[in-house]
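Biotin carboxyl carrier protein: structure tokens wanted.
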Amino acid sequence: MKQYKYKVNGAQYDVTINEIQGQLAKVVVNGIPFDVEMQNSQLAEDNLPDVTTTAAPSAAPAAPVAAAPATTEAAPSGAGEGTPVKAPLPGVVTKINVSVGQQVKKGENVLVLEAMKMENNIAAEADGTVSGIAVKAGDSVLEGAVLLTIA
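Answer:
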């Protein structure tokens, strides 16, 4: 396991490379796992040094994540036309509170984005109608990614 810290456009990213098999690496960026295809890389699994860390014992094991209740949520419909609502930080979409065609008011909570074990309510940036949803619950997104569009 190899650990790195990067700063991109003022945003801090903690990257851990857990495993490399051929040109595929299993990495974790700010707590979010990704499979990364490497091109022209000199890294090999054998070259990764072992990193040992000690952590304070936790008081209780982490609770399993409960399955999300069944919703009438449709698959992503694309970004649509209008004002985009973008991710303010990288994270995982945990809940979408609107659907395409729904009227929203500026400031209304349209979805929930989990980042660094915190839930962040993402608000509509304008009054209007949701014209497209570009993500679904469970999707990992990067900072600046279009989540949905309001026309």
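Confidence is low (pLDDT under 50) at residues 67-77. Residues 2-47 form one domain.

Cheers.
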